[in-house]
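pls ignore typos typing on phone
1,3-dihydroxyacetonephosphate + seq
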Amino acid sequence: MKEILKKAQKEHYALGAFNFSTAEILKATVLAAKELSSPIIVATSEGEGGFIGFREAAALVGVWREAAKLPIILNLDHGKNLDIIKKAVAAGYDAVHFDGSGLSYKENIEQTSKAVKYIREYSKTFDRDVIIEGEIGYLRGASSLHQEKLEIKESDLTSPEQALDFIEQTGVDSLAIVIGNAHGVFAAGEEKLHLDRLAAIKKEVGDKVFLVLHGGSGIPAEDVKKAIELGIVKVNINTELRLAYKAGLEKEFAASPSETTPYKMLQPSIDEVKKVVMEKIKLFGSENKININN
Ligand code: 13P
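k done
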């Protein structure tokens, strides 16, 4: 699984990490990746995984991986304690994100290090190379549509020196950073990346870690493209999929108010989510990259 991210890092493209909480959102995402021959990461938060079921999510991804013949990494998004990390890997997740960004820096290092130790031991015992991501910086928002103004302070941003210190002390494979990104889509459209900060972080950490951009929804495409050129290898997308899913449902209810067959009612949502995922895959440059060896 790590090879998929290494290849992206070497060739300067990024993998989309697309959140899902239902079988049809996962289906839409896989169909988009299949059509564009793209490796993908699919993810559930604790809440999303709780809804679909952790083992159920892993089983569905396993079936799609074989059926679509695609590299698909299943990731736990924002695990805030060791119990949830353990639950995800035991269910069959390939990657975990330990989010200690709400803790003090010292506490974040301590807790993340424990999670890394657990993952390394687990990987050795079960001969499965599980990927672990840490996070530093203050990421604002939630995965929804925000009417209020986004205000990002200088102190929210990840410090380049701390980024290097954090990866050296914890040994994480991937690092989520804050460079002007936030969860959700802001109606006023003011999300803007501090690309100079990203360049400074990349200069410090080099290729020692996979750099991750959370809050990928609502960021101008040009900024995302430049961030990938500067070293981002994973971009998390959730809100834009949620909005597409809802738009599909609204369209269906307006067009066919008497429809009662779930698989017919849900088709417009699948189509809308698939469209967004295809657009993101093209933007991230992961199209036609499924062959690990070239
Ligand atoms: P968005 O909801 O802004 O796309 O962010 C998703 C995310 O970062 C999941 O961790």
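The chain has a mean pLDDT of 95. The longest helix spans residues 105-126. more later
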